[in-house]
Amino acid sequence: MKIVFMGTPDFSVPVLQKLIQDGYEVVAVVTQPDKPVGRKKVITPPPVKREALRHEIPVLQPKKVRHEYKEILDYKPDLIVTAAYGQILPSELLEGPKLGCINVHASLLPEYRGGAPIHKAIIDGKKESGITIMYMVNQLDAGDILTQVRVPIDEDDHVGSLHDKLSIAGAKLLSETIPKLIANEIEPKKQEESLVTYAPNISREMEEINWELDGETIYNQIRGLHPWPVAYTTLNGKPLKVWWGHKVNAPKKGLPGQLVHFDREGIVVATGNETAIRISELQPAGKKRMQASQFVAGAQLSTDMKLGEKE
């Protein structure tokens, strides 16, 4: 059976690897164009492209797949599998393969349709997430569900750790699903529209910490943005990335955003509802990521300072 795989970031790589391990004929891989990365803007291929080339699989990188789909259909795939590809597929592509187009989505649909389901699940303090294998249609993540698997979210999970769990779970579930799809053993299930929620891509506004919120909410925001794109606040009017922190009992109360204590273990910041967060890893503007203890040793901090204030 001929499969075209469409994916782009690290999340997609285990899914592609599993298709190859299972012996399917992956006739082509479609991924996003190479992009400049880092301060030096080095042109870098997506992770899926590197993996495809390692297996000598042809790679296509259309800028806009809705206009550049014919070359994909020239491979005459029986099935198209997508996983975090990053572009909406045109009808011509969706209707091309005889087994259709299926997607590996990182949520328990109909919850969290959109581009940031992993981030949103943690930000919302969910105790579980999951993977959905679904048919693709001309509407965002709205196709019929083929299979699902649930994945628990631990208290210390962050986007990076949950991403890895879901990526592996997605590859395994896809491996179990395709044989049943070929054998026509799956009854697709429509999504319950009344239960639909969305997880739009993370905006700059969503990254800024509001210290008026309670400690639990801020902790979920920090781990829901770690290790990318990373929560931030301001100190003396300048951006300060908050890479990691935990809820703690503050040694004394303070106004939201106020530094109430700092030592070798980090910086304790008052939050809403008389709770607190201990920042343990941070990154001042123009400097490298560092432990908060290192920052405390070199910065002139005082307990009348407040985070989040603009100059």
TrEMBL record:
Residues 1-178 form the Formyl transferase N-terminal domain. It comes from the Bacteria. Its EC number is 2.1.2.9. GO terms for molecular function: methionyl-tRNA formyltransferase activity. (6S)-5,6,7,8-tetrahydrofolate binds at S107, L108, L109, P110. Gene3D superfamilies: Formyl transferase, C-terminal domain, Formyl transferase, N-terminal domain. It catalyses: L-methionyl-tRNA(fMet) + (6R)-10-formyltetrahydrofolate = N-formyl-L-methionyl-tRNA(fMet) + (6S)-5,6,7,8-tetrahydrofolate + H(+). Keywords: Protein biosynthesis, Transferase. PANTHER family: METHIONYL-TRNA FORMYLTRANSFERASE, METHIONYL-TRNA FORMYLTRANSFERASE, MITOCHONDRIAL. Belongs to the Fmt family. This is Methionyl-tRNA formyltransferase. It comes from Pseudalkalibacillus berkeleyi. The lineage of its organism: Bacteria, Bacillati, Bacillota, Bacilli, Bacillales.
